[in-house]
């Protein structure tokens, strides 16, 4: 899969990493089409792209591949340091020069992971066309699969989803009627048993009209 490169670390990486960590890193050449990791694998390394290109991807709505990150120079899959498993594939799209660093030695960037994950989820969510898919994506990635309506109500959620509040109200009513969500006095809750797979990876039976989604 890869060929070790008897070379020093890329300058930008050497400046960033503590000197004692340099000896634990390995630089390699990786051919186009190879994968640095697969969905479901346990994260053991952080990968730094010095040349070439790597994309993070996973199936999206309708089965089309959704690109979560495209990197030509810098780290990939930083957020995975705090995950038990990878939730995407890392595919080399241009033959690349990659340095891998032991993940256990990089926990010092863990404080950045929460915000990074949130931003990537927001980008993924806004790429979805239907109100329904955006709402189910939000609930599937939220703690407890729920949105608390006590602060700002559904209007604040509509703004975060990038849709009109009227479109969101109609969608909530339809999803509640179909059993995909339930309303509580102060929350909207995703009914996980109704759809065991994440909503971004499958096509739902009940659809909100495409025209309900704002540009």
From TrEMBL:
Residue ranges of the region described as Disordered: 194-215
Record Pfam families: cNMP_binding (PF00027)
Family matches, as Gene3D superfamilies: Jelly Rolls
Domain of life: Bacteria
Stored CDD domains: CAP_ED
InterPro entries: cNMP-bd_dom (IPR000595), cNMP-bd_dom_sf (IPR018490), RmlC-like_jellyroll (IPR014710), WH_DNA-bd_sf (IPR036390)
Residue span, Cyclic nucleotide-binding domain: 29-110
Comp. bias (Basic and acidic residues): 204-215
Protein name: CRP-like cAMP-binding protein
Source organism per UniProt: Tibeticola sediminis
